[in-house]
Amino acid sequence: MKYKFTQLKDLPDSPAGTVFKCRGIDHHWDCTSDRENHDFYEIVIPDRSGGHIQSFRVGKSIFDDPNWFRKEVDYEKLTELKCQKCGETRADVHVKKWFVGDYDSDNYGPHAEVSLECPCGCTRIIYKR
């Protein structure tokens, strides 16, 4: 799930009210501590120059502390599944994979497309790379 976190108290590097966005939860398997599974939020911070995006992993316990952060689902990042023609919320999921470029070139790589086919017959692409 994608979340946004609003900072509730001032910190040296960011004032209260700063909003952090989360790409999702990342799972890290640590072989050095009895093979415990550690969960992290992958936090995204836009570069102040408006250019590149920086991301870093932060332990869930830090951002889950309600004294420091308000956690909300980032509804802007969710996909609407309801068909715009008939209003149906159920669909058949289609996944296509293919490779692009010459095998020996630097631009060779996988691509994918995920689409929904509604009972009324319309098809909508929800992911394409």
Topology of helices and strands:
Elements: E1 3-7, E2 19-30, E3 36-46, E4 53-59, H1 60-63, E5 69-73, E6 92-100, E7 109-117, E8 123-128
Antiparallel strand pairs: 1-2, 1-5, 2-3, 3-4, 6-7, 7-8
Write a structural description.
With 129 residues, the chain is mainly β. It has two domains: 75 residues, no CATH class; 37 residues, no CATH class. It has one helix and eight strands. The strands form two sheets. A five-stranded antiparallel beta sheet has the order 4-3-2-1-5. A three-stranded antiparallel beta sheet has the order 6-7-8, with no helix packed on it. The longest helix has 4 residues. The radius of gyration is 20 Å and the shape is extended. The two termini are 20 Å apart. The mean pLDDT is 81.
Taken from the alpha-carbon principal axes, the silhouette is extended
Secondary structure tally: strands: 8
Number of domains: 2
Largest sheet: 5 strands, antiparallel
Chain-averaged pLDDT: 81
Rg to the nearest angstrom? 20 Å
Low-confidence stretches: none
Provide the β-strand percentage band: over 45%
Indicate the percent of residues in helices: under 10%
Q: What's the helix-strand series?
A: EEEEHEEEE
Main sheet: which strands, in order across? 4-3-2-1-5
